[in-house]
Write a structure and sequence with these properties.
The protein has 262 residues and is an alpha/beta fold. An 8-stranded parallel barrel has the order 1-2-3-4-5-6-7-8, surrounded by 6 helices. β4, α5 and β5 form a beta-alpha-beta unit. 38% of the residues are buried. Bound molecules: pyridoxine-5'-phosphate. Pyridoxine-5'-phosphate (PXP) binds next to β8 and α10. Pyridoxine-5'-phosphate binds next to β8 and α10.
């Protein structure tokens, strides 16, 4: 357990998850858009770290992305992965700053729930030990649940990442009562985890609308955000990107014909 990593009410780190840049790249099977380039831009824009989930089916991030993220990027890499021998080998080969262990089911659209640390205690234990022996911090992605937090501390995790999905669903639904309930649960879970010496992270489904209340929790050290940022980047960047294409086309016509188009 790392006591150096506890920053109650200190600066809040932003981890940008670049998985869905790779989703768009893979839709065409080429190299554009490159998630490593996106990671560099995210870092320049204020991200403290980069998160990438290497799924067993490689639906977005690839093994080579992980290698390039680790070799060419300055910010710390948080490698999300299932607790399997294959993923352990990849982690020990690349030595990210942290491994965030997540449950994984091939047919799921995204990580749907947290790890069952209580039920998988014996399965997780050797993976956690080997990751820590490789000088990599261990994060466990869990539901907001007291027994899961206690089991994470007992297993020697450095970090728990609290699943903000239920809270974000409540925000998206505009359900004030559920928002209050989920926020209270997140606040109590953060206090408990922090008290047990765990660094507290959170993520899943966070948006401009839902982020502030989670960011305000004093024990929170890092938020990991992906899908919404990649989606919003379309709206933030589409205007200037289309303008640039328009201008390249117009200039080419002007050069070819000598007639100005605009
Ligand atoms: N944290 C974990 C453990 C995740 O699995 C994900 C999704 O890959 C995130 C954070 C980021 O969630 P989102 O993409 O919804 O922001």
């Amino acid at each position: 357990m790392s006591s150096l990593s506890l920053h109650a009410a200190g600066p809040l780190r932003l981890g940008v998850n670049i998985d869905h840049v790779a989703t768009i790249r893979n839709a065409r099977g080429g190299t554009h858009p490159d998630p490593v380039r996106a990671a560099r831009i995210a870092h320049e824009a204020g991200a403290d770290g980069i998160t990438a989930h290497l799924r067993e089916d490689r639906r977005h991030i690839s093994d080579d992305d992980i290698r390039r993220l680790k070799e060419t990027l300055e910010p710390p890499l948080n490698l999300e992965m299932a607790a399997t021998d294959e993923m352990l080998d990849i982690a020990l080969r690349n030595i990210p700053n942290a491994c965030c262990l997540v449950p994984e089911r091939r047919e799921e659209v995204t990580t749907e729930g947290g790890l069952d640390v209580v039920g998988s205690h014996n399965t997780l234990k050797p993976y956690i030990r080997q990751i820590k022996d490789g000088s990599i911090r261990v994060s466990l992605f869990i539901d907001v649940n007291e027994t899961q937090i206690q089991a994470s501390a007992e297993l020697g995790a450095d970090i728990v990442e609290l699943h903000t999905g239920p809270y974000c669903h409540a925000v998206n639904d505009g359900n004030t009562a559920r928002i209050e309930t989920e926020l209270t649960r997140l606040a109590e879970a953060s206090t408990l985890a922090h008290g047990l010496g765990l660094e507290v992270h959170a993520g899943h489904g966070l948006t401009f609308e839902s982020v502030a209340a989670v960011a305000a929790l004093p024990e929170m050290v890092e938020l990991n955000i992906g899908h919404y940022l990649v989606g919003e980047a379309i709206f933030g960047g589409l205007h200037s990107t289309v303008q640039r294409m328009r201008s390249l086309m117009d200039r080419a016509r002007e050069d070819a014909s000598g007639i100005k188009t605009a």
